[in-house]
From TrEMBL:
It comes from Microbacterium aquilitoris. It comes from the Bacteria. It is found in: Cell membrane. This is YnfA family protein. Its main location: membrane.
Amino acid sequence: MTTARIVALFVVAALAEIGGAWLIWQAVRENRGWWFALLGIVALGAYGFVAAFQPDANFGRVLAAYGGVFIAGSLAWGIVVDGFRPTLWDYVGSAIALVGAAIIILAPVVTDAGEA
């Protein structure tokens, strides 16, 4: 599995999860209609399937790494969709989260014998 595919799966997962949560937010907080919530539920379900296609077999590792992608993706969604203006600290925190995600998912796996 290539790094590009791993990154692509994380991006698609982020779009599904953040988009789904945004749709539900719109239904509940902005009174956009029940069908927004329904679409959000479908998108959140799709997120679960997309995340399951990651090559790493460890659920905890995949979701922990995805957390960094979610942080950066949420800020990006806010900028593009809602006109959110992040602070310097938002950018710094997001960068730290993405570095952490990269370390978790791309680091070599160490065996019980200590080999990488």
